[in-house]
Amino acid sequence: MDNVEQYIEALIFASEQGIRTEEIIYCLQASFEHDFTAEEVTKHIGAISQKYQDDAFAIEVMRINNGYQFLTKKKFHAVISLLQMQRSKKKLSQAALETLAIIAYKQPVTKTDVEQIRGVNCDYSIQKLLEKELIAITGKSESVGKPILYGTSSLFMDYFGINDISELPQLKEITDNSSTIGEQTE
């Protein structure tokens, strides 16, 4: 089992989304019939991560949403964003972004709650966000009619590069005071 690190590297590379330590352990134990510990796997991931810190590599191992994933290094983000703009057909509409923001900050939330905040019907936006797997059905409300509750998915975390909803900007950080009238006093 000299090449366990290569197997872990292959698992991280092959995973479309972040792969958790538990998933790596499961795959290794099924392949090698040997008990692997989380510490052992984490040590190997650390070695892989160290290897990719070399400037010869354009990618690095990142821990996102409690999993590991290969991502391009920050200095290549400008060229990658050009590619993303070219492939912008997957881009979210303004309505979908607004709906997603409401769900992210108010989750778990019903479609009716989202519609009351936005002031328009959100059927199409919610359907598109479900198709793109950025939101998920998290259960049913206890209110009359037991409406479906929506929340963000783990793909949402990957997409925005966060580990937890608490890492979203606080509303006070992103509010714009340019539309206020008069002087503000503290």
From TrEMBL:
One Pfam family per UniProt: SMC_ScpB
| Domain of life according to the entry | Bacteria
Gene3D superfamilies per the record?
Answer: Winged helix-like DNA-binding domain superfamily/Winged helix DNA-binding domain
Annotated InterPro entries: ScpB_csome_segregation (IPR005234), WH-like_DNA-bd_sf (IPR036388), WH_DNA-bd_sf (IPR036390)
**Keyword Membrane on this protein?**
no
Alphabetically sorted, this entry's keywords are: Cell cycle, Cell division, Chromosome partition, Cytoplasm
> PANTHER family annotated for this entry?
SEGREGATION AND CONDENSATION PROTEIN B
Q: What is the protein named?
A: SMC-Scp complex subunit ScpB
Which species is the source of this protein?
Answer: Mucilaginibacter lutimaris
